[in-house]
Amino acid sequence: MSAPLLSIRDLSVVVRGDQGPRTLLDRVSLDLAPGEILGLVGESGSGKSLLCRSLVQLLPSRAISVTQGEVRMGGRDLLALSEAQMQQVRGAEIGMIFQNPSSHLDPLMRVGDQIVEGLRFHRRLDRAAAKAEAIALMGQVGFTDPPRQFAAYPHEFSGGMRQRAMIAVALACDPKILIADEPTTALDVTIQAQILRLLMELRERRGLSIILITHDLGVVAQTCDRIAVMRQGRVVEVGDKRALLARPAHAYTRALIASHPSMPVTNECSEVDDQADEAKVASLPPPSAVPARPLVEIDDLHIRYPLPGGLFGRRRSFSAVKGVSLQIRPGETVGIVGESGSGKSTLARAMLGLTPIADGHVTFDGVTLRGQPRVALAKIRHQAAMVFQDPFNSLNPRLTISQTLTEVLRVQGKVPSAAIPARVVELLALVELDPELAGRRPRQLSGGQCQRAGIARALAVDPRLIVADECVAALDVTIQAQIVALFQRLVKTMELTLVFIAHDLAIVRHLCERVVVMHHGRIVEEGPCAEVFERPREAYTAALIAAIPDIDPERRLLAPPVEKLAS
Amino acid sequence: MSAPVSTQRVNRTLIAGLVIVGGFVLAALAAPLIAPYDPIFQDGAARIQSPSLAHPFGTDNFGRDILSRIIYGARVDLQMAVIGVFFPLVIGTVIGAIAGFFGGLIDAVLMRLIDIILAFPFLVLMLSIIAILGPGLSSFYIAMALVGWVSYARLIRAQILVLKNADYAVAAVSLGFSRPRVLFRHLLPNSVAGSLVFCMSDAVLVLLSGAAISYLGLGVQPPTAEWGIMVAEGQAFLSQAWWITLFPGLSIVLLAFGFSMIGDALGEAMGVHE
Amino acid sequence: MHRYSFILMRPLQFVPVVFGVSLITFILVRMIPGDPARVLLGARATPTAIANIRAQFGLDEPLWLQYLYFLRNLANGEMGMSIVYRIDVLRLIGTRIEPTFALILCSVLLSILIAVPLAAIAARNQGRPVDHAIRFVSTFGIGFPPFWLGLMLIMLLAVRFPIFPVSGYGETLGDKLAHLVLPALTIALSLSTVLLRSLRAAMVDWLKSDVATAARARGMPESIVFWRHVLPNSIAPTINLLAVNIGWLIGGTVVIESIFALPGMGQLLVRAIFSRDYMVVQGIAMVFACATVLVNFLADIATVAADPRVKL
């Protein structure tokens, strides 16, 4: 390795709290070589973002401070610089892009002006030259019509284009190092693939060094040269990408790799996936001989939301679901996948009678929702339950877990009141939640614990059907793997029918027998998981699969062509 | 994070607010015990006396002791603030919850009604209603109930509209909970925090309005001791006897400050921004 | 649709509001106990005059028909006669608009001049003594009764130190402005506390926001972060707050004009209430209500201009 461009030595960061100081970063040492992409991997709370913030002295609170260590760059210790000197480093030497471009771009300022700001401040260009340069930069990061888009506001762009805008804003200061903090986490996979591709191109073209912070080992495997794994403020393992992924030395790295939901393909794909694969095989229910009556039958379903505005004349509406037909048989495990805006969540809610139907039919166990709404709803409410994406917001914040479960049991009336406390304990055991936690409120629990409580609440109905809407999307990978394993066990032991909605194809691949791919409110493809994922018939499905960053560096990710900008 | 520091500050603010408001409540309750003089007793020999040991806040043009009048005045002003907040709070919460939860025609009609009431400047509508009902404290309460519910209704409605789409509300519906149960057990308890905080700033507003209306001569009638009237009575003697006007005004400021501090502390503790 | 096309559409939404306002003022006056004609004309009214009024307003007709008559008269620009001034209510109000309008304008400008710099100082020194001091003063200031504050200002700046006139309104522009200083200051001190608190809170939030962090990460000095990113984003929501408070502000002028003897609509309203000049009360309530609707409309335009995301 050549002489490092940036060298972090024994960096420790501490927060002063009421119970004395707490160490957030513990003697972290890392090097970044010129032109290198270093992946910084870890779960939430591992300190990976904080590490990058402390490099440029942008700590999130006054209570947090660097206690020891140094950060050497170009013969200086960055930590010893004054605020004025630091301003010359920020942006001009070390640039940053962030997870959520929508909140990091100034909503009141034209995108072009935000790029111009850095050009004028750091590179001292005059207004005209700055504008010309900004337009050139916008072209470089993939804007289709820079002169026109220069004058647009951030909200007029899609998430992917906003991230490109933020990259352009960072590049305008002409940094040597770019810190990318979860730059693709909020994006759809196909867009993620494009942004990652762009970052790699920029590295080639500008000789940029990049620190890529992510929780997704697949992203790292596809883009980085070296990987540093962080946990609880420490770097547990650093090394060359291939070596580290093939022979992880630290137990935590091994756990992280094992939890990563990857697409199992032909055998070459190593030992790391075995565990998950076995679980999947075991979870497959015995193939049903008799085709039973479908539990849920959806026939040419249309769902429209009215759009605000349009006081006079035509009332505009947005079609979320356009003519979907689908049958779900009892005991089946069906995955519904698609990118944001594909209508998958709307479809899920329609199945449970939670959203008005514009046209078509939803039939639950032989009763149609529009034909006999009362009977059908009563049936659905007693036989189906939902698990939500956000583990905190799906539980009433004022009620303890046991109050929540008790209420459901009482309203459902399937368990005699005397038996309710015992049933609550049983439910908690079923989702592997410590009974000690029953008296806590959602805010006092972790995300994974909350999600288990959410599943327990669904199970309290004693349902035949569970609809899980992106229920692992907000969780760390290791927790994700645990929840998926929990679902596998529940499905196997309880004769449940599971509709599992996710944007993550790999998880669906592990968990479900059948998959339904949605795009723009329509079903583009459906069939048994193995078939659809290995031999997708539709180009869209193929693109979706190809865009998943695989943990195996040899299976390159394919970015679909640049999204067409809606004008 | 800096949580402990700010919790400490919140507690200090809350305690200070409670001490101030509590002090006035105690003074009002124990008025006959602690007031040195009868609030409406006119001492012809002690007219317009500047503050002294015998009369710490001085006397007015009828020779009445200002301090005693302020202590008795606390009864009226506190009562105005409490009743003036209570009825609008209850009426507004019910109306706002119904409008937000059921939506549709009920919501549309109630919202138009609110738009119309809000089109009138608050004090102008209050004064017009009082003009018709005739001056007096009960007119003030009626006018307050007719006008004041609007803010609470809007607050609660907005909260309910947001929470109606919260996952736990959708979950409650999907679990077969009845509509009243969803509204009263799940939505309402989670949406009142904002109104409870607003109550405190509203108490300030009501206190100031009540005093202003009395100052204009349309509220409590003389010779009852009330801070707004006392300011009005001192106005004519402003240049020669500042104390007649100053002390009742300061009492209003202090009580209002107490309410504001409680409101601030509650707001920060509950994470509510006005 | 163009972002500003609501300017053409919105006035149509005022129609139901203005109808509602007229209905409420109509009901208010009809609720007065006793014979409306006698109430409207006062005790000295001749039987002929009472008969005329009865005919004019159709007081023997059913209530809904009376309301239609009332609307018809309104459409002709007639709100009835003032029993005290013996002239048409609308013309009477017309002579009183200028001082009220000038007072409100000066108060708003003055309160912005007070609130914005103080909020900026407090927010940029969050948690430091300056911030605590400014917050303390603003929390304290919210509880100042305007009528009392006005009297204190008179005592201090007109009586003790005769810098400004005690009361009344002038003839020339300079004279008028001199007379407006104290009343406007009284209102501004109250209004600015409300603005200050909300503006400071918004600024503190935006200083901690991702937008500010991103700007700092680009090496922007704190002054650019504040003036170019934090301030514009904090002001947008305050426009709305100002509009919401305009109703409160107009109410405040009622009291303030009475204290400072400013010959405006507020003073007229208070006098009309005491002299039971109900047609004037009704007229002023309607004019004030329409003005509030108009101000909110202007605030909507300002909000759309300040924030490119807002669509109405």
Walk me through this protein's architecture.
Chain A is an alpha/beta fold and 567 residues long. Among the domains of chain A are: 107-175, no CATH class; 267-307 and 317-546, Rossmann fold (3-Layer(aba) Sandwich). In chain A, the strands form four sheets. Chain A has a six-stranded mixed beta sheet with strand order 6-7-8-3-9-10, with helices on both faces. In chain A, strands 16-17-18-13-19-20 form a six-stranded mixed beta sheet, with helices on both faces. By secondary structure, chain B is mainly alpha-helical. Helix content of chain B is 76%, strand content 0%. Chain B contains ten helices and no strands. In chain B, helix 1 (3-29) packs across helix 3 (66-102) and helix 6 packs antiparallel against helix 8. Mean pLDDT of chain B is 87; it is low at 1-5. Chain C folds into two domains: 12-75, no CATH class; 96-306, MetI-like (MetI-like fold, Orthogonal Bundle). The N and C termini of chain C lie close together (10 Å). The relative contact order of chain C is 0.14. The A-B interface holds A 15, 17-18, 61-63, 349, 352, 354, 378, 381-382, 384-386, 388-390, 393-398, 407-408, 411-412, 454, 457, 461 and B 1-4, 166-168, 170-178, 181, 185-186, 189-190. Chain C: This is Peptide/nickel transport system permease protein. Chain C: The chain crosses the membrane at residues 12-32, 100-121, 133-157, 177-196, 238-260, 280-306.
User: Unreliable segments of chain C (pLDDT under 50, ≥5 consecutive)?
Assistant: none
Q: What's the CATH superfamily of the domain at 267-307 and 317-546 in chain A, by name?
A: P-loop containing nucleotide triphosphate hydrolases
Radius of gyration of chain A: 26 Å
Q: Name the CATH superfamily assignment of the largest domain in chain C.
A: MetI-like
Order of helices and strands of chain C: HHHHHHHHHHHH
In the CATH hierarchy, the third-tier topology of the domain at 267-307 and 317-546 in chain A is known as Rossmann fold
At CATH level 2, the architecture of the domain at 267-307 and 317-546 in chain A is 3-Layer(aba) Sandwich
The major pleated sheet of chain A works out as: 6 strands, mixed
What's the average pLDDT of chain C? Answer: 85
Helical fraction of chain A equals 25-40%
* Number of beta strands of chain A: 20
Biggest sheet statistics of chain C: none
Radius of gyration of chain C, Cα only, in angstroms? 24 Å
- Which spans of chain A of ≥5 residues are poorly predicted at pLDDT below 50? 266-289, 562-567
Q: State the oligomer.
A: heterotrimer
Structure class of chain A: alpha/beta
What count of helical segments of chain C does DSSP give? Answer: 12
Q: Beta-strand level of the residues of chain A, as a percent range? A: 15-25%
Query: What's the CATH class label of the largest domain in chain C?
Result: Mainly Alpha
